[in-house]
Amino acid sequence: MTDAPPLAPQARHVAALLPGIDDDQLTARTPCPRYTVADLLQHLVVLTEAFADAAAKRRTALTTTSPEDAGPALAEDWRTRLPAQLTTLAEAWRGPQAWRGDTQVGGVELPGAEAGRVALNELLIHGWDLARATDQPYAADPVAVQASFSFLDGWDGGTEDGLFGPRVPVPDSAPLLDRVIGLSGRDPAWPGLTR
Length: 195
Fold this sequence. Notes:
Layout: H1 8-17, H2 37-55, H3 61-64, H4 78-92, H5 96-99, E1 102-105, E2 108-111, H6 112-133, H7 142-154, H8 176-183
Antiparallel strand pairs: 1-2
Helix pairs in contact: 1-4, 1-6, 2-4, 2-6, 6-7, 7-8
């Protein structure tokens, strides 16, 4: 599939944030109101495994149930597990077969191409969440930003709500990443630890 955006660059950007997270930041709030940093990291642990299974068209507990059912406790080995799973996720979506046919993730049946774009969008948005919450600079992959903008701008949930919450208006003149963040239901000016 020629229009399948690669996940590897964005996965590396998310992995680069992990060494900058101190244990005392795990209870910090994030731009995702229901998540602390620890909750967000656990969400990433679960979604990286679930979307790798979805790429392989494997039906597992993680693809057939909501990610919220995986439990809120952060895996003790997240510092080694999450970087490895980010690499595995990116590799799983590298081949064209992952983007073809139908799959399931989070208990939802969807085309493989859509699932791949959801996975990339999750990495981009939650990477931004993590960077903001832990007061780190965020280097987003430009291809991922463009792909997420197209995905979110065209997403129609039947309301003005974004995929993650009500859309936040952002001027067309703003950087594309800020516009993506607004489409996701977040305020690009969300304050981090020192903002």
